[in-house]
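User:
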Amino acid sequence: MATIFIHYFTGTGNTAHSVKLISKSLKDKGNEVRIIQVQKGVVPPVEIPDFHLIAFPVLSWAAPVLMKKYVSEMPKAGRAKTAILAVNGAIFQNGKLVKGYTGQALEQLENTLRKKKYEVFLTGNASFPDNWTQFTNPCKPGEIKEIFQVGDADVKVFTDKFLLGKKELYRCGFGNIVWSNMVANLFGYIGRRALGKFYIADQNCTNCGICVKSCPVSAIKSGKEKPWWGTTCEDCNRCINICPEKAIQVSVPLFIIQLVMNIGLTVSAIVAILKYIPQFVSLDKTFLIPIEIVLIFFATIFLIWVLMVPFDAFFRFLMKIPTVRKFFSISYTAGFRRYLAPGFKPLGKL
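Assistant: Predicted structure:
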């Protein structure tokens, strides 16, 4: 009998469902299984099991930022055997099921663990219904059922390989690592935070607090006012899918206003730097250009922060006025379906 620690992050329950299937199979074989759900405040255990199994949903071709941080904090374990499962979002396109794509996500976590002397022997994928409800309408019930059959089969194959100790490592190719790593980094540092700022609780919100309580990174705040999103959002899409009133939307006016403001301010800052820095700094172009590039970089980051924090606070203040909130609640997501994996209870345990 082996001791196995399963560490997982889940947004809308696909990964939780996968972990439940894996855990049952492992326990049926007489193994001792400990399940750790990764969320804010959870730290890796110091005990050393016989095996580690890590599972996560793929968000913009990477593991969730919180999951990557958790893995980086796992103790050095002296060649502890480890397997990693990435859960992708599958869709139906022109009547055909199309599986999700992992990009560099598995290899990134594998490299992190190898640096900490973990023996990663198995990495694999499982495809379940896509649920990026911020931008795409979730699958229809019939499609969900069919995709689940495929996903469950993927999980079984992965579990069987794990039980046999089979060594098999997923590789996406150098070219795919390069582009997916670039997108993943942009998403991790800026994209997920910005996308969280485009969420809004519309006039149907009852301030029940379910989104606040269930957010795995505590990014949603509330109180007397309707919920609002901080800068730590993982963009896991749990909140928009779990709301019982379907009151959480993507604000189109907020998206347009912030995008226009960001482009306008950034362009103005770049023009000002290129125009005035040469007047104040008498240097050869060899040294001047790198200075300008650095200043443009920091100006861009600063202006993103300005939009995400002080300007966001100003918009929240305006939205205390019902007519203003109604305007900002204009959204294409109002007519979208919502998705949670069958049986998923974010506030409960597996």
